[in-house]
Amino acid sequence: MNRFIGKTVLVTGAGSGLGRATALAFAAEGASVVVAGRTRASLDETVRLIETAGGTAAAVVADVTDSEQVRHLVQESVARFGGLHIAVNNAGILRGSGPVADVCEEDWDAVLRTNVTGVWLAMKHEIAHMRGNGGGVIVNIASNLGAHLRIPDAAAYITSKAAVSALTRATALDHIHEGIRVNAVSPGASDAPMSLRPGETEAERAERVKSQNPLGRLAGAEEVAAAVLYLASPEAGSVVGTDLVVDSGSSA
Ligand SMILES: NC(=O)c1ccc[n+]([C@@H]2O[C@H](COP(=O)([O-])OP(=O)(O)OC[C@H]3O[C@@H](n4cnc5c(N)ncnc54)[C@H](OP(=O)(O)O)[C@@H]3O)[C@@H](O)[C@H]2O)c1
Questions:
Q1: Which domains does the chain have, with CATH numbers?
Q2: 116, 157, 168, 191: which is the annotated catalytic residue?
Q3: Fewest beta carbons within 10 Å, which of 214, 238, 239, 248?
Q4: pTM value?
Q5: Is any atom of ligand 1 closer than 6 Å to the C-beta of 187?
């Protein structure tokens, strides 16, 4: 399929995992992709993978917790490829494990700042461009942990991702009349770095997940990316403010 020919797509957190898989999937369908994150080398590797496959991409270093850097990121995306039609706000971190009373202030602040404020700042600057340029589409990456499912010892992350789900719906209501369609994808444990426990191998993770969800396996990164591409595509034209769960049945 070539659903995104002529479109400029911005993906944050695209130097690894789900962000990289999403950037590759958009490029494979004809989009020009701007990949963003804090680490130049991993972004350059994503660009290399896209170009090797015959696609078009550019890397822009930006920290989503810094408003000025995000404003510059949007400006650069428009300058590189002429416009910004689709944005995937995927950058996120997982910190602050343990029971609520034992979470330290630094971890709490970092998780909320990156996962919630980072998504808000990204949308703020993306919408500032889109609203004056014919509209656009935004897909935020939340999680099944949050609005859909809770587990022990992950309250900061769970709180942040519930907020991403709520922020997505609130933003959809605020901006659909300007032609900006906003939705979220909520992955469960996926074949991407964040689902690995400290020191765990991929084989050990696969074994652990077998008994942890009804499907008995991780969601593939390309399966999560496919959900993002659907929401960004014209086929989802009347899908507004939804939160598509891709979690192997964990929250069914
Ligand atoms: N993997 C899963 O099982 C799973 C499940 C549910 C939801 N999710 C969500 O999916 C998203 C991607 O997860 P993943 O597994 O692919 O994790 P990952 O490989 O750690 O990717 C996260 C990306 O975000 C970037 N990032 C972190 N902080 C940033 C900041 N302040 N500014 C800009 N970029 C930043 C990181 O790059 P730099 O460090 O270089 O900036 C990294 O490339 C996250 O939002 C995560 O919460 C993942």
A1: 8-246 (3.40.50.720)
A2: 157
A3: 238
A4: 0.98
A5: yes
